[in-house]
Amino acid sequence: MLGEQPKVLVVGGDGCESLLGLKRRLSSEGFAVMSAKREEELLFAHASAKPDIILLNPGTDMNYGFRVCEHTRAADPRVGIIMLSDHSSEEDEVWGLNAGADDYIVKPFSPEVLLARIRATIRGRWDAAGKRQIIEAGDLWLDARNYALRVKDKPINLRPQEFRILAVLARSGGEPLNSEQLSQRIPGQWRGDTRRTVIIHIHRIRSAIEPFSDYIYIHTVKNVGYQFKPVAKRHASH
Fold first, then answer.
1. Residue 206 confidence (pLDDT) above 90
2. Which candidate, 45, 29, 26, places its Cα nearest to that of 37?
3. How many Cα atoms are found within 13 Å in the side-chain-facing hemisphere of 164?
4. Does any domain span residue 2?
5. Which of 17, 59, 165, 192 is 20 to 30 Å from 145 at the Cα level?
């Protein structure tokens, strides 16, 4: 399984035992599973949890499913969307894919097939070590593979080592990391005083991001290290 815990949001459902079983199976396979019954709940869950995959299960109302898929894809071009459909016609499959789904699976389906499809959809969004490539938090968007960073869609330029530090902190799940831990997780040579070098890099990262953001992202935890946690500026302090 992947090194981090991928998040799957299951949307819709007819309350059948098979869907409950699917959620249990996903949890047992290491996925963090969330649920939303309608589009309104989907929008809230998507904004707050930033799922990696959305399993869209519209039941018999395919027009509703296509509409929700279009809205979700417009809001987030990067999330993986898999439609679970009661309709096997080629026309419906084409509609679903054109609406923005990455995959279209007709019921009934094997749990093993669905798991394989989920992993295939995630694969392009994670690296070989199971680390999330695209990180979204607050108004920040980070592409770890391509060394790309944006705040409110504004490109932010960081030096490579600064970018690596930010990516490691953002992937740490809120765990504070000290200078030694950062140096162990980031390849390359660290010359001189590692602690002093990290302090300088953290200062540069903050200086590059914070003037354009509504959030403070990197917080100093006294006697512990640095923590990545998006906090609105009106509530934040370093």
1. yes
2. 45
3. 14
4. no
5. 192
Distance CA 96, CA 69 (A): 8
Burial state string for 140-160 with b = 16 or more CB within 10 A and e = fewer than 16: bbbebeeeebebeeeebebee
Is 1 a residue whose pLDDT tops 50? no
The reply to whether 99 falls in a domain is yes
Number of compact structural domains in the chain: 2
Residue 129 belongs to some domain of the structure: no
Q: Do both 32 and 119 map to the same domain? A: yes
Distance in angstroms between the alpha carbons of the first and the last residue of the chain: 35
Q: CA separation (Å) from 169 to 103, 131, 200? A: 32, 12, 15
Location of structure tokens 């959030």: 215
Assess if residue 1 is contained within a domain.
no
Q: Mark whether 75 and 110 lie in a shared domain.
A: yes
46-64 pLDDT, tens digit each: 667 778 889 988 877 788 8
Q: Of 123, 150, 171, at which residue does a domain stop?
A: 123
Which structural domain, as residue segments, surrounds residue 161? 134-235
Token readout for 140 is 């920040």
pTM for the whole thing? 0.56
Span 210-224, pLDDT tens digits: 999 999 999 999 999
Same domain, 118 and 144: no
Paired tokens of 88: 């096997």
Write out pLDDT tens, residues 103-124.
Answer: 899 888 888 988 988 888 877 5
Cα-based angle 62, 122, 75 (whole degrees, multiple of 5) = 55
